[in-house]
TrEMBL record:
GO terms for molecular function: 3-dehydrosphinganine reductase activity. It catalyses: sphinganine + NADP(+) = 3-oxosphinganine + NADPH + H(+). It comes from Patellaria atrata CBS 101060. Transmembrane segments: none annotated. InterPro entries: KDSR-like, NAD(P)-bd_dom_sf, SDR_fam. It is found in: Endoplasmic reticulum. SUPFAM superfamilies: NAD(P)-binding Rossmann-fold domains (SSF51735). This is 3-dehydrosphinganine reductase. Pathway: Lipid metabolism; sphingolipid metabolism; Sphingolipid metabolism. It holds the Pfam family adh_short. GO terms for biological process: 3-keto-sphinganine metabolic process; sphingolipid biosynthetic process.
């Protein structure tokens, strides 16, 4: 990554910050975007500490990533266009569907889908305009990485708003993966990637545990105390390592942090490219379809029915 410039939307905390730190440790110049300047400044210090040479730059830009015009202005105002864009910004809204109001649904879609859509659209417009004016004939690789969730593959009660927004991000990534092929250019090659992390431990996860319905925790396997969950689930550092490795391999779908996520992706692969040569995903699709996902589904349905019985008692 030495000499590359990376923009990270949602890079002030959690997974976005870990990705920024690891890419800085590989020599990349980093610009992180988020709303809170205080948290951005603290993240910038941590990222600066990971640099491998002093000339590397780290910038922190305060912005509402859910405002398309502000995103466009912020990206235009940077000294350099990035080689890579990570769309990491997001957040969770918990609660059963009938308990949510319209603002909850709109907020979750804005935090997860629109932040990804606006940042990706803005950078693609800037890249394609830059290609038209470019005088160099050397080939440039330009990449967009969407961070969605394993929630894009299944519906878990209590995640109605969140799951829908993450499904939208997956659909956007699938669509853009093909749309960028419309821009054959001697100057740039575009690739799109989509990561589907499952449960992992961050400060935000710890706070979310306080608000999740008990049924949601039971289904996703997070009912235990946080000390036990920290032993069971990966850290943001480990998840970031897997995502960066998946991008380096050229995978469209990145599901490295959990075997369960690989089963879910394989059983819902649709028109997305299979990973690697496709042999493993082909096998997993059949195995998961016959043995894994039906068992999960029946178990989750029983939990929901027991919840109804408890409510009547």
């Amino acid at each position: 990554m030495r000499g590359k410039t990376v923009f990270i939307a949602g890079g002030s905390a959690g997974l976005g910050k870990e990705i920024a730190k690891q890419l800085a440790a590989q020599g990349a110049d980093i610009t992180i975007f988020a709303r809170g300047q205080g948290q951005l400044d603290e993240a910038k210090k941590e990222i600066l500490a990971e640099r491998i040479y002093l000339a590397q730059t780290v910038h922190a830009v305060s912005i509402d990533l859910g405002d398309a015009s502000k995103v466009q202005d912020a990206f235009k105002s940077q000294d350099r266009l990035p080689d890579v864009l990570y769309c990491v910004a997001g957040g969770t809204t918990h609660g059963f569907f009938t308990d949510l109001d319209a603002r909850d649904l709109e907020s979750c879609m804005k935090k997860n889908y629109f932040t990804a859509a606006y940042t990706a659209q803005s950078i693609l417009r800037l890249w394609t305009e830059d290609d038209k004016a470019a005088k160099t004939t050397s080939q440039r690789l330009r990449q967009i990485i969407f961070i969605t969730s394993a929630a894009a593959f299944l519906g878990v009660p209590g995640y109605a708003a969140y799951t829908a927004s993450k499904c939208a991000v997956r659909a956007l990534a699938d669509t853009l993966r093909m749309e960028v092929l419309r821009h054959p250019d001697k100057v740039s090659t575009y690739t799109v990637h989509c990561a589907f992390p499952s449960t992992f431990i961050t400060e935000a996860f710890v706070e979310e545990q306080k608000m999740k319905p008990e049924l949601t925790k039971r289904i996703e396997g997070t009912l235990a105390p946080i000390e036990e969950l920290e032993k069971q689930y990966p850290s943001a550092t480990r998840v970031a390592e897997g995502i960066i490795a998946g991008v380096s391999r050229g995978d469209f779908a990145i599901c490295d942090d959990s075997p369960d996520t690989s089963y879910l992706f394989a059983s819902m692969i649709g028109p997305s490219p299979k990973r690697g040569l496709g042999v493993v995903d082909t096998f997993l699709a059949a195995y998961a379809g016959w043995f894994i996902t039906p068992r999960w589904r029946r178990g989750w349905e029983k939990m929901c029915k027991r919840e109804a019985l408890r409510a009547r008692l």
